[in-house]
Amino acid sequence: MQKTSRNFFLFLSQNKTLNKxxxxxxxxxxxxxxxAGESIExxxxxxxxxxxxxxxxxxxxxxxxxxxxxxxxxxxxxxxxTLEAVDRCGADxxxxxxxxxxxxxxxxxxCFQFMKEIxxxxxxxxxxxxxxMEDYAHCQPTLDMLxxxxxxxxxxxxxxxxxxxxxxxxxxxxxxxxxxxxxxxYKEDDAVAWQDKKQIDANFLNIIKQxxxxxxxxxxxxxxxxxxxxxxNFTAEAGIPADQFEFQMLYxxxxxxxxxxxxxxxxxxxxxxxxxxxxxxxxxxxxERPQNVSFAFKGMFxx
Length: 303
Known about the structure:
The chain has helices spanning 2-13, 16-25, 40-52, 69-89, 108-124, 139-150, 167-173, 197-213, 225-238, 255-263, 279-288, 291-300; strands at 56-61, 93-97, 129-131, 156-161, 179-182, 218-221, 245-250, 268-274. The chain is α/β, with parallel strands linked by helices. The relative contact order is 0.17. FAD binds at residues 133, 161, 183-185, 197, 222-223.
């Protein structure tokens, strides 16, 4: 039943017609609980509120279905405005973005130039940029883009997904690069990814330990309290310094645990998405855990 529900919502997340309709619906499906409004200003208000609780943030202007160079240019300009807003309000925050939003499927060289412009701006403001990982088809292109960019910029990193068989090899190849490690939230074929939760969890812990023991900065993104406890124990026993890693969770989920980890003295960051192109992101959150479906329905009727 859980697998069927996951596959259903992952299927919906890729539906471009529903994505377009969702923009007209606004946040009436409960997305307001997990998306920090539509504007940069609303996102910054959320980030500053988190900062006051000792929580760092990452902001992401949502959007994936880009079909023209003009749309990609507009997305790049929005990233630049977001960086300026982070600097202007003094938020403790970095920028997350997707290469599909910047037109990697349209023109890779154009996407590269957009990324250079964004990283130049971020470097001038002493800000970091995280390239989000998307589906498997975009995994190698994303890593290729990262390697080109890292030749000129050190303020950029990416995400590695534990459900992919290749994850450990990619961790080896990216020693020294700040990485966000996640379990993975897309529907992938068993030719490239584990399907069993126990195998995914085991590999998640393996790549976390692998990246940490290489001396690399590691962001551990999970809501799983068992994984968090194991990481706490491992870092303490291995003598991993507290400034070499951080825990991350998504905005709107397990808020009490987020605040508790920050109060315990761990570096903690909340991933804060915003914008009106929220549909695909929201469907993937519903796919991840059956509990999120009831969470969404509560949001629909709490207006």
